[in-house]
From TrEMBL:
Ranges for domain 3-hydroxyacyl-CoA dehydrogenase C-terminal: 193-256
Important for catalytic activity (site feature) positions: H146
Protein family according to the UniProt entry: Belongs to the 3-hydroxyacyl-CoA dehydrogenase family.
Keyword annotations: Cytoplasm, NAD, Oxidoreductase, Phosphoprotein
Broad class of the protein's primary localization: cytoplasm
Protein name according to UniProt: L-gulonate 3-dehydrogenase
Originating species: Chironomus riparius
Domain 3-hydroxyacyl-CoA dehydrogenase NAD binding intervals: 9-189
GO cellular component: cytoplasm
One GO molecular-function entry: L-gulonate 3-dehydrogenase activity
EC numbers on record: 1.1.1.45
Length: 315
C-alpha cells in the first residue's frame, strides 16, 4: 500500500549499511528520504549501493512495496548539511557508529537544530536512550528503534523509550514501522540489551559452555538451532511453542517446569568470550566459512531471509 504520507520527509543520519537499509525500507512506500553524512563520497557510495540493491531485488522478484526500483530510488537523496537534512522531516533515524561519546556529540548538535515535533530515533543496539539524551532539551522526542541486522531482510524492530520520552512517540513510531513492513515491538521501559540481545546472549552463553566442555562442535551447535529450534522459532516464539507442545501453557508447566528448573540449576556462570575457547570457536567457524567467503555467505543469508519473509507473508 502506498504511504498516505508519501510527500513527508524522513532523515537518515549515517550512510553505512544500516542507514542504507533504513533508506530503502522507508522509500519502499514512497517516503522522501535524505541520507546525511559528513563526506560526499560516503553519500555517493551509499546511494550507489542502495540503487544496486534495489535493482537486484527487483530482478529477483524480491523488492518490497508496490513501487518500482527506480521509483523507490528516486525517493532517496543525500546531503552533507545536517541542518538541511533534518529540515522539514517528521522522523529521524540515527545510524552512526556505536560510540557513546560520538552519539552524545551528535545529539547535542541535533538538540540545537530540530523542532519540537520530530521523532528522534536511534538504531543503537548497545546504548539505552537515556545514556545519550538525558541532557537534551528535546529529550522527550528521543527513543531507540533497534533493527535486526540486516534490517531490510529481517523485519523486527525494538522500540525503546526512555523515562523522558513522550508516550505518543513510541505509538507513532510503531505505526510508521508497521506501515513500511517492519514488525515492531514496544518495550514499556529501557533495559540493558533490550529484549532481542538479552535472549541472544543467553543462547550464546550456553553455546559457549557446551563447546568449552566438549559436548558439541561449533558446527553441531549451529545445527541445533538452524535444523531444530530455529525451524519452529522462524514461525512461533518460544512462549507459543510451549503452549502448543502440551495442552496449553498450564499443562506445559505441569509437565516440564520441574525439569526446566532442574536443568537450569546446572547452568554455569556467565562466561567471558576470550582465551583458548575463543580461538577454537574462531578456527571452526573459519573452516565452515573462510573469511574470504564472508560477503558471499552474507548475500546467501540475505536472500534466504527475504525468501523466508515472503513465505511467511504468503502463509
Amino acid at each position: 500500500m502506498e504511504s498516505i504520507f508519501k510527500d513527508r520527509k524522513i532523515a537518515i543520519i549515517g550512510s553505512g549499511l544500516i542507514g542504507q537499509s533504513w533508506a530503502m525500507i522507508f522509500a519502499s512506500v514512497g517516503y522522501k528520504v535524505t541520507i546525511y553524512d559528513i563526506l560526499q563520497p560516503q553519500i555517493d557510495n551509499a546511494l550507489k549501493q542502495a540503487e544496486a540493491q534495489l535493482k537486484s531485488l527487483s530482478e529477483k522478484g524480491l523488492l518490497r512495496g508496490k513501487l518500482s526500483a527506480d521509483q523507490q530510488f528516486s525517493c532517496i537523496s543525500g546531503c552533507t548539511d545536517i541542518k538541511e537534512t533534518v529540515k522539514g522531516a517528521f522522523f529521524l533515524q540515527e545510524c552512526i557508529p556505536e560510540n557513546l561519546e560520538i552519539k552524545k556529540s551528535l545529539y547535542k548538535q541535533l538538540d540545537e537544530i530540530v523542532d519540537d515535533n520530530i521523532i528522534i530515533s536511534s538504531s543503537t543496539s548497545t546504548f539505552m536512550p537515556s545514556q545519550f539524551s538525558s541532557d537534551m532539551k528535546h529529550r522527550s522526542q528521543v527513543l531507540v528503534s533497534h533493527p535486526v541486522n540486516p534490517p531490510y531482510y529481517v523485519p523486527l524492530v525494538e522500540i525503546v523509550p526512555s523515562e523522558h520520552t513522550k508516550t505518543e512517540f513510541p505509538i507513532a513510531t510503531r505505526a510508521l514501522m508497521s506501515e513500511v513492513g517492519q514488525k515492531p515491538v514496544v518495550l514499556t521501559r529501557e533495559i540493558e540489551g533490550f529484549a532481542l540481545n538479552r535472549i541472544q546472549y543467553a543462547i550464546l552463553n550456553e553455546c559457549w559452555h557446551l563447546i568449552a566442555d566438549g559436548i558439541l562442535s561449533v558446527k553441531d551447535i549451529d545445527s541445533v538451532m538452524s535444523d531444530g529450534l530455529g525451524m519452529r522459532y522462524a514461525f512461533l516464539g518460544p512462549m507459543e511453542t510451549t503452549h502448543l507442545n502440551a495442552e496449553g501453557f498450564l499443562s506445559y508447566c505441569e509437565r516440564y517446569s520441574k525439569t526446566i528448573n532442574g536443568v537450569s540449576q546446572t547452568f554455569k556462570p556467565v562466561p567471558k568470550m576470550e582465551g583458548p575457547v575463543m580461538e577454537k570457536v574462531a578456527k571452526e567457524l573459519e573452516e565452515m566459512c573462510p573469511l574470504e567467503d564472508l560477503e558471499k555467505r552474507r548475500k546467501w543469508r540475505d536472500n534466504c531471509l527475504t525468501l523466508l519473509s515472503q513465505m511467511k507473508k504468503d502463509l
